[in-house]
Amino acid sequence: MTAAPAPAAPTARLSWKREVAVIAAFYAVYTLVRDLRGTRPVSASLAFANARRVVGLEKAIGIFQEADIQHWALHYRFLVESLDVWYATTHFVVTTAVLVALFFARPSQYRPWRNTLATATAVALVGFALFPLMPPRLLPGAYGFTDTLKTVGGLWNVDSGPMLHVSDQYAAMPSLHFAWALWCGLVLWSILPRRWMKGLALAYPAITLACIIITANHYFTDTAAGAAIIAFGYGISALWERRRRPEEQRGRKSAMSVT
């Protein structure tokens, strides 16, 4: 996927005020659904049971290496601290920046990519509701993981203060951190002109993947699911654009005939 799914008609006019309102409304619904339960104990047993299923699956196919990777990284405190900060800041900041850049730099590609992101995020909310998953950092000590946000530090801690009551720490399947980072990488790949710039664009989801594994916030299975929902969102967006294109062409012809 190196290009936007079926670009919108070049003449389609976009209103930044409308887009801000739509995105704000969508984010409000996303936040409400994601954080509705917070970390209430009622879901802890189910989240742990699902974590055991994921660990069992990864062991069966030979990819349960997250703890070993984290143990290696813990020898480099500055690396872990940097990744804690990366985890806390880039998720929303970079995604918002890419949306804004896309809106102004490539308006014809904005709507398809926005719809890709919105569809993937909506699917993720369904996953959070149907499959609450305890992240590696919250597993019992026997699993060998360290909660780096708590023991090493970063800009915030989800186990204290207001975050304890509003953040659903069991919203791990699929990984939206990786899904949004992959979306950003693909968007930038499609609009940046030079090869080295495209390489830097793809470095962003790669670093985010390392981040969420080393900080024990996700399993490899979560990241695969994150990639899958982006692919699904891309496909839905492409179908939607193909359906809209004839309607927009008819609308332009009607406007020209009137004038």
Question: What does this 3D model show about the protein?
Answer:
- Helix 8 (176-191) packs antiparallel against helix 9 (195-214).
- The chain has helices at residues 16-34, 44-61, 66-73, 77-105, 107-130, 148-151, 163-166, 176-191, 195-214, 220-258.
- The longest helix has 39 residues, at 220-258.
- The model is unreliable at 8-12 and 161-166 (pLDDT under 50).
- It is mainly alpha-helical and 259 residues long.
- It is globular.
- The two termini are 40 Å apart.
Strands, helices and their partners?
Elements lengths: L15 H19 L9 H18 L4 H8 L3 H29 L1 H24 L17 H4 L11 H4 L9 H16 L3 H20 L5 H39 L1
Helix pairs in contact: 1-5, 4-5, 4-8, 4-9, 5-8, 5-10, 8-9, 8-10
Q: What would the keywords be for this entry?
A:
single chain, mainly alpha, 259 residues
In short:
With 259 residues, the protein is mainly α. It is built from ten helices and no strands. It starts with 15 loop residues before the first helix and ends with a helix.
| DSSP, total strands | 0
Note the total helix count.
Answer: 10
Taken as a percent bin, the fraction of beta residues is under 5%
Overall form: globular
Main beta sheet strand tally, sense and closure: none
